[in-house]
Records
---
Amino acid sequence: MFVPGTADDLRARSAAPRHGSADPTRRTLLWVRPAVSGGIRAPSLPHERPVIADATMTALHAALTGLNQRAKVTADNIANIDTPGFLAGRVNFEDTLRSELANGQPATVGQSAVTQSADPTNTNGNNVNLDTETTMATETGLRYQLAINALDGKYSLLRSALRTS
C-alpha cells in the first residue's frame, strides 16, 4: 500500500518520469516480419513490397502496424497501473499516415511516435487511468478488426479475379 510522505513517495516524486514503451534504448522495429515455415521471410524492409499490392492494401498494412503498436503500449500502461512514477504512453500514427496518403507517398508506419500522456498524475506520480486505457484498448481492437475485414475484402476480390481468369 502506498503511503504519502514515506520513502516510496519521495523516490516516486524525485524519479525521472518514465514510460517503458517510450524508452529510446528499447526500440523495436515493428515492420520486421517473422520467418514462416520453410525459412522464407515475409517482406521485412519498407522497400520490399509484395508482388500484388496497391495503395489501399499498403495503407491497411501500415494502419495495422500502428494499431498493433498502440495495443502494446496500452497493455504496458495497464500493466503498470500501480507503478509509482509511471507515465502512460500514447501512440499517434494516424496523422503521419494521413499526411503520407494525402501527399501521394507510400504508406509506412515504422516506429510511430510514442509520447507520454499529459494527463495529471495522482499522489504517487502515476497518471494511468484504467477507464481511459480500457476504452482505448476496446477502440483499438475494433479498429484493428475493421482494418482486417477491409484487407480480407481486398484479398477476396483478388482470389475471385484469379479464379475467373
---
Amino acid sequence: MAGVPPVLFLALYAGKSLRPCATGSARRAGRSGRTTRRARGYDPPMLANLTPFLLHWAITAFGLWVAAHVFKGMRFDSGGALAVAALLLGLANAVVRPLLVVLTLPLTLLTFGLFLLVINALMLMLVARLVRGFHLDGFWTAFWASLFMSLLSLVLGAFVLGGTPEFTIETSPPPGQTWL
C-alpha cells in the first residue's frame, strides 16, 4: 500500500460517518421518496453530499496517480500536490469547463464533439500550471492522459459508485417537479 495517496482511503470511512440522533432511530429516503427505517440510533450525516464528493475526489486522485505512472511526461512531486491537483481539477471541470464548452460550441459541433477532448486536455494543463509540484510536459501528454483518465474514471465510477441513488448527483429535477 506504500505509494498510494492518502486521499484514496477517505472513501473507506466516508460511508460510515453516521451520528446518533436524539430520537433513537434513523431514517433515510427510500427510492419512493418516503423515509424508511435504518439502523436504530443513527441519523444520516448532515452533509449528505460529502460522501459522493469524497468518492469522486478519490477517483480523480487515483486516476491522476495512475496516469502519472503510465505517462512519463506527467509527474507529481508529492502526495499533497496530487490531492490539491485532484481537488482543483474537479473545480475546473465544474466551473471553467462548461464556459469553454459554451464558447467553443460551434467548433465542437463542427468536429462532432471531438473538440471536447481538447478541452479536457486544456483543463489538465490549467491545473498543472496552477499546482506547484504537478508537472506536465506538453499538450499531447495532457491530451492522452486526460483521455486515459476519463476512461479510468468512467470504469471506476461504475464499480465504486454503482449508480446507486445515494451516490447520484442530481442534475435535473424529478419528472413533474421544478427546482424553483
---
Amino acid sequence: MRQTFSGPSALSGDRALCNKTEKSRVSEQTSDKARNKNRAANQAAVELLETNYPQAFNSAQPKPLKIGIQEELVADDKVSRGKIKRALATYVRNPRYLQSIVEGAERVDLNGEVSGQVNASEAEHAKAKLAEYKQRRVERQKEQRKQQRVAEKEERLNTKLEALLAKTNKL
C-alpha cells in the first residue's frame, strides 16, 4: 500500500535545518567580509610603518622591536596614533615576528640601531603565542573539515529526498 503525503511536508524539519544552516552561512560571510576589511586596514597600517621606518619594520624579515617603540613613533608624528596602534598590534602578532623573538636577539629602534636584547621570559612568551596560534589553526582546520562533511551529507540527503519526491509524484 502506498502512502501519499498531504498537508505539511514530512521534510519541514529538514527544511528548517537547511534554513538555519543557510542563515549561519550568511552571517559567517558577513563576518568574513568585516574580518577581511579589518585585515586590509591592518596590513595598510603595517605597510605605512614599513615605508616610513624601513630600518625597523620589515614583514619579510622582522627584527625584535625596542621596548617602548610606540612612544617613539607617536613622538615622531609621521603616523597617526590609531594607525600606529593598529600596525604595531598586527606586526607583533605576526608569526614571523614571534619567531624572531629568541633569547639574546638584538632589539632595534626606529633607525635600526641596537637597543636592548630579548630576555628569556620574552622568548618564552613568543614561543607560547606561536604554539597557541598553531593550536587554533589545527582546531579551525578540524572544524572546517567537519562542516564540509556535514554539508556533503546534507547535499546527499537532499538529493535522495528530491529523487524520492520525484518518484512519489510520478506515481
---
Amino acid sequence: MRESYSRVLRTASQGYAVDLSAFLVAWRTTSLPDREVIDALVHPAHAGPSPALAVVLAQWPGTYYWSDEPDGRHLILTRPFRRRQERWALHVVLFLATLYTITFAGAVLAGGIPYSGPLAFFTSGHPGYPGFLHAWSTGLPFSVSVIAILLSHELGHYVMARRYQLDVSLPYFIPVPIPSFIGTMGAFIRLRTIVSDRRQLLDIGVAGPIAGFLVALPLLVLGLTLSHGAAAEEGFRGLVVYFGGAPQIPLGDSLVSLALRRLLLGRAATISVHPVAFAGWVGMFVTMLNLLPMGQLDGGHILYARLPQWQQRVALAFWLLIVALGRLWIGWYVWGGLVLVLSRGRLGHPPVLDAQRPLPASRRRLAWAALVLFVVTFAPVPFRL
C-alpha cells in the first residue's frame, strides 16, 4: 500500500453524497482543478464487488474503474467539478474555414477549378470567381472524406477523455489556404489537466488513431474502386494524384495501401487516384504520423503508458530514424523539427498523476494493437517527389 494513503474519507456533509468508507481499507484523495480523484483499496470482502458495494457505487456522482494491484483490488473514483465554458465560436469558425480550404483543394484535384500555381487559392478560391459555387462544390467528396477522418480521430480522443471526466477542449481545426494539395494541417485537442494514470493515458492516446483508421480504411477502399489505371510516365508509378491534366503527386505505399491497390486494381503500373482514395490515403498518413512514439504525439502517449522507463530512449531512437529517413523524403526533416518545437526540445513525456499503478493486461494488448496499426500504415517515403 502506498505511503500516502490515509484512513480518513470525507463524509457526505463534507461534499460527498455517497459514503464508501465502510467498504474500504485505506484511500487517498487528490484534488485537481477539474476533478477530485480517489484511489481506494477495497476490503477483500467487498472486492467482488459485493452486492452492497455495487448498490452504493451506482449512486457515485462521477466515474470509476477497478485496478488489480499487488496489495489488492483498488477503486479509482473520479468526481468532476464544474466544467469550464468552451469558446464555441472559435471552434466553429476554424472548422468552417478548414472545410472551405479543403473543399477548394478537392476542387483543384477534381478539375473543377484549374490549378494556376501556388497562389491559386487567392486567384480562384473566392465567390467572385466565374462559376465558383459549382466549381467549388466538385471538391466536396474530397473535403467531406478528409473532415470525417480528422473529426473521428479527434473525437476519439475527446470522447475518451470525457469518459474519464478530464478537462479537454473541443477540436481545433487548422486551415491552410496557401499552396497545399490537402487544404489543412489537421486538427488537435487540448488536454487541460494531468491524466490520472497510464491506463487513462493509453486509452486517450490510442482512441484517436483507431477511430481515424476505421473511417479512413473504407474511404480508401471506396476511392480505389473509383480510381483507374493510367499511362505510365517517367517518375510516376504506383498511386499518383493527377490534376491540371497531368500527374502531379506520386504517393508512397504503406502495407495497407499496397495490399488494397493490388487487390482492387491488380498490378497496374500507374494508378490515377480518385480524390476519395487520396483522402483515405491522407487518413493513413495522419494515423502513421500520430503513432510515431515521440514526445506528446499519440504514439508517445502509448509508449509512455506501456514502457515509461524506456520512453525517452525509444523516442530518441525514432527521432534519429526519421531524421535519417529525411534523405529519402525531406518532409521527415520538417516533422522531426516540428516534434522538437512542440515538445520544447524534449522528447520525454510529462508524468501522470500515479505512474505506479499497473497497466491492465487488456491495455497491454491494446498497446500491441497500436504497434501493429503503426507498422501497417507506415510509409518510409510518403510522397515520392
